[in-house]
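Table S2 (text version). Query chain:
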Amino acid sequence: MLIQPRRGLLKIWRSVLNCSLTNGSWGSPGRDGGNAISDAEQLVCLLYPALKIPVLNFSVPDDTEPDVLNTLSPLGDFATAPTVLAGIVKDYLDRYSDEGRPVFPPGGRVCALDPGAEPSPEQGQLETVEAYSMSVTFALSALAFVKSFAKQVRGAELAARLRTTEAALDRRLTRAMQGLLDSFAVDVFSEDSPKGVTLLRTIGQRRQSRDVLVDRLRTELQPIRAGLRGLSLPESVVPLLADEERLFQCGWAWGPVRSGDDDPVRVAEPVPALYFTVTAMDGIVDFFSRQTLLLGLLSDDQQALAHALRLRWELTQSYWTAVARFGGDRWPLADPPWRPTDHRGEESDYATLQVASVVVHNLMRRHGADDVTPLDDLTPLAEVLEELAARGGITRRPRAHAGTVELHDPGELVPLPGSERHGPALGLLVSDYAPMLLKRILQLAGLTPDLRQRDRLLSLADELVDHLWRRRLSAGPATGLWDAPEAVYAHRDRPSTAPSWYVTERVVEVLVVAATTVNTPLARSALLTEIVEELLRDAEQLYAQEVMRRPVGPSATNPLDRVEPVLRRARDIADTRPSVAVALAIEVLRELDGLALARDRATRGG
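Corresponding structure-token output:
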């Protein structure tokens, strides 16, 4: 791969510090201004890699790698840098709290759908799933850093500040988790409704009667319907979901869904949106990561919330995977663009990528390193991602008049239905198509056991890496950060020199995934396993024959003494590192062939 995670992340850290520190003070220089989401993304760029990649961890000063210390030097030396960063985290928590209660304002990318309108002050206090999900990633990363650093601290004053920071992070994490729970939605509708018609038209890949299509869909969704009925749902939804004649969808709305009381925050219509569903999933998965579990980052109450979120996470994955793969032979997902039912029913390559993201989540949950993912699950998805790279104007020339450039800049405006209760109807501008696509390609490459398919995906990943790296800012204090799409598409005369923490943080996630892929054993290849077994069987047979030919007894120069440990090592690692076992088996075969050749020459010479 062209991507080099460690080097790339350290360069990003250096650029983040260069543009964020002015005369030793931490600022918010992002193009969306200072807000709870952008400021969290800015800090996550530093904290998240340190959580996920042990060699980049800087919470234990004496164990910090020299290149990491050098990169963090604008914060101070190995002893003071963690203290300064802990102070920056505390300042963030203080800034986005109201009398000790964490707040999650929506951020600078929320705007009125009507270009002539402005969001009201009340709308500036609305909370979104994006804010909750980013707060989960921020809080878990910061908790891991603060808890680990606190163990190294001896001063009473600093230790007390760290305990205060830890408590505030804990409160923010709990509120974010509860916010994600409050934002989960189940939408029930009839097959004749606009939503039902759109759904059936999307999944109907064959010429079959509508009744057959609906009956089959109901049958496939029955286990998911049963699982949803076991959740605590609004009273208005329960009887509708019990009516098996109706269709449904599940996932995350843009924010806390409206309730019976007049809650100024809970105003979102109870309709799942693909963008916010994927955003929620990307945050929820961190609850079950190895680092979260090993470091004990969740309290007992948070464990209960995580369990509730996991149930919804799994059911939502199952629903969208079933819909995306409906019909078996040719997936509806493989016929882009996807027609979402969540807003206006417009076709969207962004929606296709979001559904594909849910399917990738589902495969990662069901198949780990110890379980070979079936190629029937992987191949259609790999083809979809390859097609999306082309349709997005990354591996193919952008399509004229098809909105390809607009997909990246300014992005797609996702409506926030229900926001009009406090002012004009709002939307969220999203533009992470390229980094999201690269992230899914790398995750899928880590699952595939087929070497050719993996190479094909990694080759595609290299093209996306080249695309994203050309979109780095090349002037101003944020040089080396993102985003400058005009460098690729040349569509704007006056590019911004301020960083987009939104896109930069997504690129950091990509590099973390790449590092994880590098450090994760490859999925087992049936072909490679078969080859190594055949080589070892042949090598062991030839070794046994050589042993039989040689007299028993001590020999200071017995060449077979070199062969036996290599052969034993190859057999020991045949399952976990088959490619290395192949190399060792070939080494043994070469050594044994040399002995046979020497014996033949000696025989002919005699």
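Notes on Table S2: DSSP finds 22 helices and nine strands in the chain. The first helix runs from residue 5 to 20.
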